[in-house]
Amino acid sequence: MFNNNNVSEFMKKAQQIQEKMQEIQKSINIIKVQGESGAGLVKVMMNGQHHCIKIEIDDSLLKLSEKNILEDLITAAFNDANRKINEEKKNKMSNMNPGMPLPKDINFMI
Fold first, then answer.
1. Domain with 75 in it: what CATH number?
2. Is residue 19 part of a domain?
3. Do residues 41 and 55 make contact, with C-beta atoms less than 8 angstroms apart?
4. Which end of the chain is more exposed for a tag (fewer CB within 10 A), N or C?
């Protein structure tokens, strides 16, 4: 069933896939995405490791009476950026082997 050539080819292919996965992981780690909410009133910048880099808040929101709204907008902007990171990961992973489709609900928390 398996001979030395098949095993050798399989091992080469597995090594190539592992190297490609490492390249993809490095490229994912350095991506930066910006999520926003409130039509741009709150912006959150995150990297591919899901670390928040920067939050920008429009001056018009800096009122004590608007505290709950501001907190909700920051949460929404953070979630928007997080969704974009997951989309980037999924795109990069699906491009790795076009002949092997990935499940739509797969979660890339690499």
1. 3.30.1310.10
2. yes
3. no
4. N
